[in-house]
Specification:
By secondary structure, the protein is an all-alpha fold. Helices cover about 70% and strands about 5% of the residues. It has a domain of about 160 residues. Strands 1-2 form a two-stranded antiparallel sheet. Helix 4 packs antiparallel against helix 5 and helix 8 packs across helix 9. It is globular.
Length: about 230
Amino acid sequence: MNNKLKVYFVHALTSFGVLLSFFSIISILNDNKLLAFVFLLIALLIDVIDGSLARKFSAGKVVPNVDGKMLDSIVDYINFVFIPCIIIFKFDYLPLPFNIILPGVILLISIFSFSNTKLYTNDHLYIGFPSIWNIIIVYLTILNSNSKINLYILIFLIFLKIIPLKVIHPFRYKKHIKKNSIIALSLIIITFILLINSQKITFLMEYNSYFLNLWYLLNLYFIIFVIFINTKRN
């Protein structure tokens, strides 16, 4: 397979994410929250893979007429922001009237994040909390917190978006990239298991407490990592 075909394959892989968006929305309309999350998590895994492949095959140089970054941003905005906001509204994650107000705020401030040309530093750190609302809504589902707690958490994260906090991209931040990538992939797998069990579908349920403790530990690792980076650079 020549390089041009490889690049078109990568773009096709990226664009497949929008089909997953469609299936996720259909699942929401059918009140199937778990299936909606499954499609979003598959889209997340594609997002982890396609960027690395695009850089490996020099996509911008080989097929300059297709803007892979814009393609990726369109798909990511739908899956990372738009659909999670629908889930927040549809499945009563927030008390009235915040179930409409907060998704609206998230949609607006995230669209400016996606269009911000200075969103990343040269060493691939996000400026401000990244627009990973798909992950946040999965976390809220696993934690099974009440609507008021969810409200406080989301307001806090929105606040983090408007301050110059630096957050790592585990698959692109070069320092400790191998270790961070392994931990991030492990976290995705464990999150998926916990998500399934949170929806009353038992899967390795006898080990659920172990998975939950490991989940807390891995998330704590990234929180400490982010604190260290911000402290070091200040």
